[in-house]
Amino acid sequence: MRDLPGLPSRRTFLKASAASAAVAGVAAVSMPAEAAAPAPTPLTEYKPDCLKPTEWAFVMAAVARLIPSDGDGPGAIETRVPVFIDKQLAGDFGKASDWYMVGPYEPAASPLRGWQTPLNPLEIYQQAIPVFDDWCKATHGKIFAELDAATQDKALTSLQKDEMKIKPELREFFGILLANTKEGYFADPMYGGNHGMAAWKYIGFPGARGSYKEWVGKHNVKYPLGPVSISGERG
Amino acid sequence: MKTFFRIIGTLVVLGVVALLAFIFVPVQRTGPVTQLAADFKPAKGQGEYVMRAGDCMACHTSEGGKPFAGGRAINSPMGVIYTTNITPDKETGIGTWSLDDFRAALYDGVDKEGHHLYPAMPYDSYRKLSEEDVVALYDYFMKEVQPVKAEVPETKLAFPFNMRFGLRAWNWLALGDAGFKPDASEDAMFNRGAYLVEGAAHCAACHSPRNLMMMSSGTNAKDAAFLSGGEIDGFTAPDLRGPQSGPQQWTTEQLAEYLLTARNAHSSATGEMALAIRDSLQYLTKDDAMAIATYLRKIGAGKGAAPVAEKAEVTPTQTLLTDAKPDMPLGPRLYLDNCAACHIVNGKGAGETFPALDGNSLVTAKSAKGLISVILHGAELPSTERRPMKLRMQGYDDRLSDEEVATLATFLRDGWHNKAPAVTAAEVKAVRDEAHH
Fold first, then answer.
1. pTM for the complete prediction?
2. Could you report the predicted ipTM of this complex, rounded to two decimals?
């Protein structure tokens, strides 16, 4: 599925609220006091901008498998990737506002031709999640969010390989789910994900500082400063 | 006793007469400083050139309004002064003004009816214009400017500033002789620069301190306070003569470059200076810009000598920023996070693009308002004919708190070779709140 360094093991589903608390603790230690932001709404109490409860439950469960919380480094839950996805789907990306979305549509055209479905990303999430949940129920006995982690991994693999033969209008679903999860993990915190710049700290990315000119000639020296976000958070 | 009352009575009457005379006897208007030949005709374009040098358009045009139709609100410490319509419209402009009326406004600060103009109109500087330039300017306004019928809001200052006759006394004290007297010991270039700086370009209006009576200190270089820095709307207009001032640290060519393009190897113009360059100075010829630069460098601490080349040294500030240790204080950390990409760890920026912050008069100004304003709201270089790119720095008002801006500004004011006092969060808040009005 995904190949993030240092994430060899699988884990059982970590309760979102517990994970948030854990991350808040980490943040308090590693960030300068003046930059410590007030703790955000726990994911279990978050009111999504556009996702309905069943969709939210699916996204929470799915991203937790795509970037799990066990092993080294933060997972998608601690970095609040579901919030990022909800906000993106509620905004221009979800509505495909600045895409060419005029027919003719050929959903079954070669995937090499890119986005051929008449649906926008939000509609794909909205239509594909029930289809996938139905398939999970028929195949594994429960909807996706209620499956155990190992079965969830299996189900996601099946989705990726399109074993359920999802209709062509929805074939982009797994692709955008995975892409949006990575984006939410690594994007600037101002978009709702990468909470506390935890993903940047983990991979050593120094953020939006703009220039590191004086470091170009320093070979094999670790850059000492933590990251900075677009809105000025210091990590 | 009777005699006593008679004396008192006489004194009172004399006092009243004097006061009435002070108020009602028309001001003696200054005539031409040189008698021009009867057939004198200004060269083509000369009037417009004087208008540009004098920057008439900037004040006498309202935001988005027709050129010279007036109505711009000028915030003065006494209240809002509305500029007048100086188009040749006969009813609302100056269409019925004679050359003598026009000259009296420039020289004596009185309008056609003899009312005193508020000294927001820099007649204490325009008073130095040559008769040739006065005639050229008059010719330009009467023949080349489009008449615009537009009434402007009446200027209503609070008592006692609404008593315009009081300006008569102000004028007695503030105005020197009309006309420009060249310095015989200096060359033509120096004197051309002096004529422009002291006269049309009215540099002293901002760059000279004003005394308690709001008069510019000095009208020429003989006065040490002349162009030694002033204040405008809470912003510091920098000193131009001290050893650390820009004009004395730069070469004559670099100073001329700055006046013509708003940027040079060291710095770039912000605030009111950017506007003065956009609306006025960029229209000067290269020769006139060089003349101004020559004059300013000659009257300063450097006495016109070439500036001493900077020593290539690594300051402790640069070392601190280069090391980038995680336990560094917040000020330099904010600089690295927000500023260093363009202004560089050595504080030197990049010539003609990113101004140096080391030795920058805006950074070390007495009032930190300009520095705070640029950090919060950013800055934009004006587009000039020679350098059209409007280079822009973004504002950081949404990224930095008042405390952070204060900490950063304090670091800048004390970094590299700078030595200026700290900035408080309250000062930052005041600038931030002002922008929200």
1. 0.84
2. 0.74
